[in-house]
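[Automated response] Your request has been received and processed.

Submitted sequence:
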Amino acid sequence: MADDSNLPIDHQPHYPRLPTDTDDGLLLMISGPSGAGKTTITRGVDRAIADSVFSISYTTRDKTDADSEGVDYHFIDTDEFQRLIDEEAFLEWADVFGKKYGTRKKWVDEQLSRGRLVILEIDVEGAKQVKAKMPDAFGIFILPPSEDELLNRLKKRKRESEDQIQKRFAEAKREIAEAKSCDAYDQFLINEEIDEAIAEAIMIVKAARIAHAMHSDS
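Generated structure:
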């Protein structure tokens, strides 16, 4: 038998079974461009499903006064982040404008072993990394009703200049095209009205868990 004791902690595969554990674990990825409503929908799914847990990313970006450690992010320095990369401790990670963000694999594995619905709000590149490592992960990509509506939503935010809005709009269109061309997503959900979109997302996730459990039992 292989000895796991010398493996980095993130590679040790077994967790003691708890009385509350089930076999219903599912890794859920939710993505979408800015303005599509993915964060609101993600929060709606998280609130509606009792055993869901939301993944908190690790990051090297500076902590602001508005941030809470372990709530918004886990804040670590660049050396610690690189050490975790070297140990293959991340399920996925990315460099965004010089700041690194990553999802810790050990935490995800443990929550899945407990039977939880593990939710990642993630970009397309991250979703592709996760799907390659964990093919059973279930991906939902949130779409706007149309490009015109997406641009309208971005303008309604009134957070950025017109130039910044156009750059974000171009990036959104690129991200949508990439999502449609890759194999990371199982469902594309059009968000025309937010409450209806949340309800549909909840139904999709519940059906996916049933299908996943049936497949696992077969």
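Summary generated for your ticket: Helices lie at 38-48, 78-86, 105-113, 124-133, 147-157, 162-181, 194-217. Residues 2 and 200 are 45 Å apart (CA to CA).
If you did not submit this request, please reply to this message.
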